[in-house]
């Protein structure tokens, strides 16, 4: 079951925080299933926390230690926890349940919009390219590329564009993600060089996209293997900032600077050094992106997702008051709405944004002022144009900038763990998750739909909206 379908009908208001078990209101069927999942996960986590790694490692089998007793079999420790630690498990259940409800609130801007079934379907077959002269092998084999692009413009029928994009990508055997909205389109797809070239030509030939040129598509080495599947949907926003496009429009964006112009501005800022007080170089990306690569002397907000950016601006307005702001992101799309939001506060002298984002800047200045890797939202996690390593292994602090997912089943945090540390089992994002990592050869004991994410120490200890200072 898809995550959006699973969460679509949750009645969040039916559960009230801090209510006792006896006073808890009747939950809907879906919420009861979610609560049961949380209880099973809490039970598994509690049992895992009692595993004695030192004893277990020395005898090559798991051992649990609780209440001054040693348990050699899973069934025995399970019975002990069920009989003796009901209150602790219940408290963990409540915390886990509340965390998931909070995540559901965050997911609202990520949920595809339902189609109006009364809307008449449009024939899209004439918009698809003729590939009859090509074999499937010819479309799939050979060197590959990953494309990144967006276009803001008025789309009167996003569902037809969505259907066309899905059919086009399937025909060309492309994988990736495409978001369509009444405000435009945002996509990143991977496939063979031949298939991606046909995709670009087909896009530029369409009446709605004929203002696009080949240069509007950022490309990098990769392929269909960089994505697990193809996801195409209609959303309220083509990049989820959490503010309706009718409230903050891309048409109110800041002034675009091409890579050469942006490079000159940064060069001037760098030459002034500490004496520069009237310019802010603002990274609009998430903390885990700027952690492995950024422009020198930038302000990189410690935010976890772009939908937190408006609140970050609201709580840090003095940082931008009477300043010139130079703004950048991965491919330029986030800056369109971010600059419009910042300008709406009427505190800045000027707001500029890097046209084409870091992608285009690195094409022109591979050894310029951007140092480290460029984070990308696919299986590669990062691409690079220089050898600088800005980040370090979270365990031993050795220079390291290659992300992997946390080894626990339900945590989706990214981890910087060097080969030496991974080799001794340090594969989780924090101590709480590390205690849940199953022994080698065993599957995770967590139960429930794999689409559910859980928070941990990494997210709990980070302020949602940091207070920054220049």
From TrEMBL:
Signal peptide: none annotated. InterPro entries: Rhodanese-like_dom, Rhodanese-like_dom_sf, Rhodanese_C, TrhO, TRHO_N, TSTD2_N. Residues 275-370 form the Rhodanese domain. SUPFAM superfamilies: Rhodanese/Cell cycle control phosphatase. It holds the Pfam family Rhodanese_C. This is Rhodanese domain-containing protein. It comes from Gadus morhua (Atlantic cod).
């Amino acid at each position: 079951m898809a995550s959006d379908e699973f969460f679509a009908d949750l009645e969040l208001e039916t559960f009230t925080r801090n209510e006792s078990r006896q006073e808890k209101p009747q939950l809907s069927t879906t919420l009861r299933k979610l609560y049961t999942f949380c209880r099973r996960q809490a039970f598994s986590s509690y049992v895992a926390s009692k595993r004695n790694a030192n004893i277990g490692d020395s005898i090559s089998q798991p051992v649990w230690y609780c209440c001054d007793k040693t348990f050699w079999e899973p069934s025995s420790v399970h019975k002990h926890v069920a009989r003796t630690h009901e209150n602790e498990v219940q408290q963990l259940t409540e915390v886990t349940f509340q965390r998931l409800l909070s995540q559901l609130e965050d997911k609202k801007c990520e949920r595809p919009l339902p189609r109006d079934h009364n809307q008449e379907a449009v024939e899209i077959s004439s918009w698809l390219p003729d590939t009859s002269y090509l074999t499937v092998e010819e479309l799939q084999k050979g060197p590959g590329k990953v494309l990144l692009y967006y276009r803001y413009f008025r789309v009167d029928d996003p569902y037809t564009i969505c259907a066309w994009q899905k059919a086009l990508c399937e025909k060309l055997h492309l994988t990736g993600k495409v978001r369509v909205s009444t405000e435009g389109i945002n996509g990143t797809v991977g496939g063979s060089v031949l298939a991606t070239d046909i995709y670009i030509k087909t896009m530029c030939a369409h009446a709605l996209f004929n203002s696009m040129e080949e240069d509007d598509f950022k490309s990098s080495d990769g392929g269909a293997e960089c994505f697990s599947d193809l996801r195409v949907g209609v959303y309220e926003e083509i990049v989820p900032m959490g503010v309706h496009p009718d409230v903050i429009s891309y048409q109110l964006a800041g002034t675009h600077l091409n890579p050469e112009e942006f490079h000159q501005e940064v060069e001037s800022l760098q030459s002034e050094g500490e004496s520069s007080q009237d310019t802010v170089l603002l990274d609009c990306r998430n903390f885990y992106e700027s952690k492995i690569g950024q422009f020198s002397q930038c302000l990189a907000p410690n935010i976890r997702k772009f939908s937190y950016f408006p609140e970050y601006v609201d709580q840090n307005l003095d940082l931008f008051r009477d300043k010139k702001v130079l703004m950048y992101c991965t491919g330029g799309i986030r800056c369109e709405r971010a600059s419009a939001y910042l300008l709406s506060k009427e505190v800045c002298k000027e707001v500029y944004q890097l046209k084409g984002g870091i992608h285009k800047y690195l094409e022109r200045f591979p050894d310029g002022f951007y140092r480290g890797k460029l984070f990308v939202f696919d299986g590669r996690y990062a691409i690079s144009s220089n050898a600088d390593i800005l980040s370090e292994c979270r365990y031993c602090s050795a220079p390291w900038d290659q992300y992997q997912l946390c080894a626990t089943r339900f945590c989706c945090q990214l981890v910087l763990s060097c080969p030496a540390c991974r080799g001794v089992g340090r594969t989780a994002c924090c101590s709480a998750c590390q205690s849940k990592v199953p022994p080698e050869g065993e599957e995770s004991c967590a139960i429930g739909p794999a689409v559910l994410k859980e928070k941990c120490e990494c997210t709990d200890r980070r302020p949602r909206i940091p207070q920054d200072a220049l």
